[in-house]
């Protein structure tokens, strides 16, 4: 699974297997356009020696059409879950490898398609509200990297942060909703299509940008837009939370009141 975005927009995609593995493909955007980094993170379903699932990540800040790994290496990826992103950097944001999603921590991988106006002020206030780690821990000076520092602390306490197959509530989805509510309460024009995976499940939000889901017999793909003409693709309405786990997809509205700080 690999998704090529439109020239003027970033894009991301996540895929999770239904009890098995998934493989990365190469429906790539190989043509001229703005500078865009392309990255992929895969979570291996086999525990490491410490008993935790292992996240492997590849990132490149160069335009995707110049990277031979897209055709030579990435198609060979096999994993219980794959998260991929293509970045079209917002004007004023750094173009560097550290700014490219997926951002990872432990078993988690994260991507953000969108933008947060006045993000330095907004995310400083949100971090203070949640008592999160200092934003200086962000890998890069971007809204997405700073947002991840806040979200990762909430995910660390999630019941779903257990080894694959463990039971638990929809805490990752609630973590996404809480962070989005806090951001939108301070920046109502923020665009927050978020995507997070833990190696066993994928959670995605729609807030301004498009999102589609493809359900196959052995895997599910969540992507910014369909990357082929498969009739099983279905669009997701705006302001929704998508959860994929054990081959099952659930979609529910994001209960967020605009213009109110926090939640």
UniProtKB/TrEMBL annotation:
<dbReference type="Pfam" id="PF13522">
    <property type="entry name" value="GATase_6"/>
</dbReference>
<dbReference type="InterPro" id="IPR029055">
    <property type="entry name" value="Ntn_hydrolases_N"/>
</dbReference>
<feature type="domain" description="Glutamine amidotransferase type-2">
    <location>
        <begin position="1"/>
        <end position="263"/>
    </location>
</feature>
<dbReference type="InterPro" id="IPR017932">
    <property type="entry name" value="GATase_2_dom"/>
</dbReference>
<protein>
    <submittedName>
        <fullName>Ergothioneine biosynthesis protein EgtC</fullName>
    </submittedName>
</protein>
<dbReference type="InterPro" id="IPR052373">
    <property type="entry name" value="Gamma-glu_amide_hydrolase"/>
</dbReference>
<feature type="compositionally biased region" description="Low complexity">
    <location>
        <begin position="1"/>
        <end position="15"/>
    </location>
</feature>
<feature type="region of interest" description="Disordered">
    <location>
        <begin position="1"/>
        <end position="46"/>
    </location>
</feature>
């Amino acid at each position: 699974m690999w998704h090529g975005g439109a020239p003027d927009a970033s894009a991301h995609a996540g895929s999770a297997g239904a009890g098995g593995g998934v493989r990365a493909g190469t429906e790539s955007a190989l043509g001229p356009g703005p500078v865009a980094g392309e990255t992929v993170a895969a979570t291996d379903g086999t525990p490491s020696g410490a008993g935790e699932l292992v996240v492997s990540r590849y990132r490149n800040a160069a335009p995707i059409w110049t990277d031979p790994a897209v055709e030579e290496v990435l198609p060979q990826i096999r994993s219980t879950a794959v998260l991929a992103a293509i970045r079209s950097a917002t004007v004023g944001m750094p173009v560097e490898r550290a700014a490219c999603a997926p951002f990872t921590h432990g078993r988690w991988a994260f991507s953000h398609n969108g933008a947060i106006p006045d993000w330095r002020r907004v995310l400083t206030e949100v971090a203070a509200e949640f008592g999160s780690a200092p934003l200086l821990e962000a890998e890069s000076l971007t809204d997405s990297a700073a947002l991840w520092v806040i979200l990762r602390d909430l995910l660390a306490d999630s019941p779903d942060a257990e080894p694959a197959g463990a039971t638990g509530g929809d805490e990752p989805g609630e973590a996404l909703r809480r962070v989005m509510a806090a951001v939108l309460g301070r920046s109502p024009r923020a665009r927050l299509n978020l995507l997070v995976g833990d190696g066993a499940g994928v959670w995605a939000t729609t807030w301004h940008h498009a999102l589609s889901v493809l359900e196959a017999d052995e895997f599910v793909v969540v992507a910014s837009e369909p990357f082929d003409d498969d009739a099983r693709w279905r669009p997701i309405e705006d302001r929704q939370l998508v959860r994929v786990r054990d081959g099952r997809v659930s979609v529910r509205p994001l209960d967020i009141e605009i213009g109110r700080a926090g939640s």
